[in-house]
Specification:
The protein is an alpha+beta fold. The chain is built from 9 helices and 30 strands. The strands form 9 sheets. Strands 13-20-15-16-17 form a 5-stranded antiparallel β-sheet, with no helix packed on it. A 5-stranded antiparallel β-sheet has the order 22-30-25-26-27, with no helix packed on it. Strands 5-6-7-8 form a 4-stranded antiparallel β-sheet. Strand 2 and strand 3 form a beta hairpin. The longest helix has 64 residues.
Length: 636
């Protein structure tokens, strides 16, 4: 009878625990991160009745266990991190795409309006109104480029702020996970049981962390979880948490760089000489870093590259022209110079001065110039790939590399470095220098003519300027042929006409077509009164659509189209990837919730089952009492 009573009591207590857990599940059916719990029961070891038979003694509650699948949980975290990265990337990429892609106000439209205005001057070179339209469109193009540049700087500031916030959030989550690890260990040591609700709370924090940065988890024997990010940096080790700190970049105080802090140890997670995206990836932080590295920085540099190319070719050709007053043209635009940013850790007194030498070979890359081993070395900032330098770095023989000239001086210390931005600062210094419409140099400064009475029937080109600075450029030159292939200039010398028919002198060239006869003559002279001449305007228009970038293989319009297209393609790919990843996230979340989530129908059935079992065991106890009372009455 005692065994019967013990069995009944143990069953009653077990069903009470089962009902408590079921009630707890129902109450938390809508609680985020909650994993349904189950009571683990086991029969009490039977007792020997003395006759070789074993009689059961009831049930034991082994513990309360949560429903959890580590594989499904990790799959869901990975999917959540990937989705968060792509969602962040796509939303910010869309901002750039909208900025550049507008058909009316976009960069391509602005450049085309300027080109049309140059062509308008070529069509009516005597029109002051057409020249004024050109200056207005030049000013409009400048303002449009600076609007883009200002907006890109605003986006950069917004991105830096978001990166700083992400670092703070990640550090806070790491601290919470470490605290929960400590609470779990303490509870397990006190009770010998796993605290399911604390473990759910920890998993929820890890889930949230995975939406900010890619993580990997490692279980420890004491019940704690170690959390790693990036290339294996331990963010949480047991009850100790590291942190991610956002601080000003060592080259650019306006740019956020990330540092891994563990105790008193600080480690750079990447800077301007190695891509941050290679160190930290996944989650919204990875999306921000990838956006900045893959789209924002290249867009600003490429926009600057186009600006340098535009001003370079327009200025060079404008200087070779003549304005309405007969004066040589000057620069139409000014442009910002190369940005040289010394590292905050520089210990020496070195100096670096850099200028652009050729827009055609200038790239949209940033570089790091470092003094090491007693010599200067150049490498790309994004990839770290070495770039060859020629020259000695003096003013007379500067270093040369990829369209840049470097002059170094002072006494640098080993390890001193400078970040070089050849194009990023170009737009901020962009200005239209010509404000008087009559000073637009639409005409060529020279013209040619054929002497009356020539017998050879030869034609001569109007003339092309080779060197606008030549002092005798517009001096009159008479070309007199002494034979079919020899000639004199102003009655002196004897020169042989090449097969190409080109004659060059005083910074200009002309080309003859046909075979001259002895005595034939030609004149090259100043284009005095050439107000109706449009040759230089035509050359400017032609240069705008000629290969002047990327080694002379890409036009300005082509470079703009490529840049805008690249942003559009990246945006579209990110959006498609985000939509696909969203489906994957929904599937993995559903699979995880199928194991961990609370099913109210199932819990209702369990409630009924445990209630009936509770009532049944209560009847066992009642029956025991009746038997005991009967026994007492029988022996009274």
């Amino acid at each position: 009878m005692a065994d019967m009573l013990n069995s009944g009591v143990s069953g009653l207590l077990a069903m009470q625990r089962a009902l408590d857990v079921t009630s707890h599940n129902i109450a938390n059916a809508s609680t985020a991160g909650y994993s349904r719990q189950r009571v683990d029961l086991a029969a009490v070891l039977p007792a020997d009745s003395g006759g070789g038979e074993f009689v059961g003694r009831g049930v034991n509650v082994l513990g309360v266990r949560r429903s959890y699948d580590e594989l499904l949980a990790n799959q869901q975290r990975s999917a959540a991190g990937n989705y968060s990265r792509l969602d962040t990337y796509a939303s910010r990429a869309q901002t750039l795409s909208n900025l550049f892609g507008d058909s009316a106000t976009g960069l391509s439209a602005s450049l085309q309006r300027f080109t049309n205005a140059v062509q308008g001057v070529a069509n009516t070179p005597t029109s002051t109104a057409a020249r004024q339209v050109l200056l207005s469109e030049a000013e409009g193009l400048k303002q449009r480029l600076q609007t883009y540049d200002n907006r890109l700087q605003e986006i950069s500031v917004e991105t830096n702020t978001s990166i700083k916030n992400e670092a703070t959030t990640i550090s806070d989550l790491a601290a919470r996970i470490a605290t929960l690890n400590q609470q779990i260990v303490s509870t397990q040591n006190q009770t010998g049981q796993q605290p399911s609700d604390l473990m759910d709370a920890r998993d929820q924090q890890i889930d949230e962390l995975s939406r900010h940065v890619s993580v990997s988890i490692q279980s420890q024997g004491d019940g704690t979880l170690n959390v790693y990010i990036g290339k294996g940096q331990p963010l949480v080790l047991g009850t100790r948490a590291a942190s991610i700190v956002a601080q000003s970049d060592r080259y650019d105080v306006s740019r956020m760089s990330l540092v891994y802090k563990s105790g008193s140890t600080y480690t750079n997670l990447g800077d301007t000489s190695s891509s941050l995206g290679d160190t930290l990836s996944g989650g919204s932080l990875g999306g921000l870093l990838d956006f900045r590295t893959e789209l924002l920085d290249p867009a600003r540099n490429q926009l600057g590259q186009v600006t340098v190319g535009l001003t370079s070719v327009v200025n060079a050709q404008h200087r070779e022209g003549q304005d309405l007053a007969g004066n040589m043209g000057g620069d139409l635009f000014s442009v910002g110079g190369v940005r040289v940013l010394p590292a905050s850790s520089n210990a020496g007194s070195g100096s670096v001065s850099i200028s652009r030498t050729s827009a055609s070979v200038l790239t949209a890359n940033d570089y790091v110039l470092q003094y090491t081993g007693g010599a200067w070395a150049l490498r790309r900032a994004d990839t770290g790939v070495a770039v060859a330098l020629t020259g000695t770095g003096t003013a007379a023989d500067p270093f040369q590399a990829e369209g840049l000239a470097f002059v170094v001086g002072g006494t640098p210390a080993t390890g001193d470095s400078y970040k070089l931005q050849p194009t990023a600062g170009a737009i901020s210094g962009l200005q239209v220098l010509v404000t008087d419409a009559t000073k637009v140099a639409a005409a060529a400064p020279i013209r040619s003519s054929v002497a009356f009475g020539n017998k050879g029937g030869v034609t001569i080109s109007a003339g092309e300027v080779l060197d606008a600075t030549a002092p005798q450029l517009r001096a009159t030159v008479n070309i007199a042929f002494t034979s079919s292939n020899t000639y004199m200039l102003n009655g002196t010398g004897s020169y042989t006409l090449p097969a190409s028919g080109i004659i060059a002198a005083n910074g200009w060239m002309v080309q003859l077509s046909g075979t001259p006869a002895a005595g034939d003559g030609f004149v090259v002279q100043s284009n005095t009164g050439g107000t109706g001449d449009n040759r230089n305007a035509l050359e400017i228009a032609r240069m705008l659509d000629t290969g002047v970038l990327t080694g002379g293989t890409e036009s300005l319009t082509g470079a703009v189209s490529r840049m805008v297209g690249a942003v559009g393609v990246a945006t579209n790919q990110a959006q498609n990837g985000r939509d696909t990843q969203k489906l994957i996230l929904e599937d993995t979340t559903s699979a995880r919730d199928g194991v961990q989530g609370v099913n109210l129908d199932e819990e209702a059935a369990n409630m009924m089952r445990f209630q009936q079992a509770y009532q049944a065991t209560a009847q066992v106890i009642k029956a025991t009492q009746t038997l005991f009372d009967t026994l007492l009455q029988a022996t009274r």
